[in-house]
Amino acid sequence: MPEDKDWEAYKVPPTRTPVSERITSVPNPVTFFQTVFNYVVDTPVTFVREWIERQQAKNKFYYYHQKFRRVPDLSECLEGDYLCFFEAEAQWRRDRLVDTEIVEIIRERLGACKQREGPNEFQNCAKEVELLAQVTKAYQDRYGDLGVHGNARTCLMKQKHRMMEERKAKAEASS
Amino acid sequence: MAAMSLLLRAAAAWGARRAASGAVGSARLPGLAGAARLPGTLAPVRHSSDHGKRMFIIKATSFYDTRFLNLLRFYIFLTGIPVALFITYVNIFIGEAELAEIPEGYVPEYWEYYKHPISRWIARYLLDAPEKDYEKEMALLDVEAKKKELRLLELDARRLMRHRGDGPWYHYETPDKNLVDNSMKSTPDN
């Protein structure tokens, strides 16, 4: 579902088909099949598609990606302010969807890298593997075991526990 | 040739009569449809090109099944075909929207965030704006929050008035002191 428009990340190398000279006088049968395909399939389909696009170009209209304003977080809401809770919850859900899509895109990039490299994937895709590991770990830390009823409050509590654990570990490490 | 067919027909009838008596005599099941080769029938079957030997095939009725399937197809296509034609028309002649960056200083309407023209139409004419839905939900939450506050205040007031006894609640009407008959306590020797 996410369409990754950053083609640079995929780094498809240019094809290196060598130009060779003819050594036989037998014509290449592939050209015959190419011309047949061109006349039987390609030309009608392209004609129909371009006709459709001409019809659609008469009245073009656009759609946009909605940008939401940032509202105060759940940690900035006063107790009992249910409206603030509601807005923070909506914002947290949108952020969780965005983070899920980010992880999905990075996973697709790793898949594309593996497809591209073929047998060299273990060496050449190491950066993508590392990036995916970091992103997945961060996602798991933030949204990980909240369960299906996870909301902004349980996520905040999880963050609080994480910070307490870190503080305890630092105190034990320093003492 | 006509005599030939008459001969065949007579032979088949004789064979059938023999088979009927044989079936009655030996109680054999007459369930051999199609390839019913009676013993003793010597009528040669001409496998001609039109129908072969015409058989009366006995099978269960498919009337109800075909009627059901015909009705199903009819009622599905009755609205299905116009809807399919309409959707094809929309997809070919109107087409989907293109993704664009939001221009400077332009606030898109709430239906301009959808791609397909039918989704845009539904969002524009049938549904409320998501901002309006958001505000409706927040209004509901606000009313419930105020109700909750008032209920808590009422419970507090009840508790305090019961405890302190200085409020208008928990005051009970007692009879007037002029109505009390003190004659039983008026002399010490009763």
Automatic annotation (TrEMBL), chain A:
Pfam families: NDUFB10. It is found in: Mitochondrion inner membrane. The keyword Electron transport applies. InterPro entries: NADH_UbQ_OxRdtase_su10 (IPR019377), NDUFB10 (IPR039993). It is a peripheral membrane protein. One of its GO terms (cellular component) is mitochondrial inner membrane. Keywords: Electron transport, Membrane, Mitochondrion, Mitochondrion inner membrane, Respiratory chain, Transport. Belongs to the complex I NDUFB10 subunit family. Accessory subunit that is involved in the functional assembly of the mitochondrial respiratory chain complex I. Complex I has an NADH dehydrogenase activity with ubiquinone as an immediate electron acceptor and mediates the transfer of electrons from NADH to the respiratory chain. This is NADH dehydrogenase [ubiquinone] 1 beta subcomplex subunit 10. It comes from Pterocles burchelli.
From TrEMBL, chain B:
It is a single-pass membrane protein. Its main location: mitochondrion. One of its GO terms (cellular component) is mitochondrial inner membrane. The chain crosses the membrane at residues 74-94. Residues 1-22 form the signal peptide. The keyword Electron transport applies. Keywords: Electron transport, Membrane, Mitochondrion, Mitochondrion inner membrane, Respiratory chain, Signal, Transit peptide, Transmembrane, Transmembrane helix, Transport. It is found in: Mitochondrion inner membrane. It comes from the Eukaryota. InterPro entries: NADH_UbQ_OxRdtase_B5_su (IPR019173). The keyword Transit peptide applies. Complex I is composed of 45 different subunits. Belongs to the complex I NDUFB5 subunit family. Accessory subunit of the mitochondrial membrane respiratory chain NADH dehydrogenase (Complex I), that is believed not to be involved in catalysis. Complex I functions in the transfer of electrons from NADH to the respiratory chain. The immediate electron acceptor for the enzyme is believed to be ubiquinone. This is NADH dehydrogenase [ubiquinone] 1 beta subcomplex subunit 5, mitochondrial.
